[in-house]
């Protein structure tokens, strides 16, 4: 995945997009929201939500890799 194509967005926006992709909020521990996708293949990822602060590009890239989403699929969900 090319990290330069990823948008600069907050954790809240990432959670919102992942929920559109079928992920459900499993629990919140501190500032990290843990989301799961029960459909095959089963996936789980953690998203740091620090107010409206932007998520670093490398962290967003890792979240998308855990969620098994391409940059194009993720951008379409925004």
Question: Could you characterize what this model shows?
Answer:
With 78 residues, the protein is α+β, with helices and mostly antiparallel strands. The chain has one domain: Metal Transport, Frataxin, Chain A (2-Layer Sandwich), CATH 3.30.920.30. Helices cover 36% and strands 23% of the residues. It has three helices and three strands, in the order αβββαα. A three-stranded antiparallel β-sheet has the order 1-2-3. The longest helix has 11 residues. It is globular, with a radius of gyration of 11 Å.
Give the count of structural domains: 1
Written as H for each helix and E for each strand, in order along the chain, the element string is HEEEHH
Radius of gyration: 11 Å
| Tally of helical segments | 3
Mean pLDDT, to the nearest integer, reads 93
CATH fold call: Metal Transport, Frataxin, Chain A
Point out poorly predicted stretches. Answer: none
| Main pleated-sheet profile | 3 strands, antiparallel
**Beta-strand residue percentage:** 15-25%
Quote the distance from N terminus to C terminus.
Answer: 18 Å
Summarize the structure in short.
The chain has 78 residues and is an alpha+beta fold.
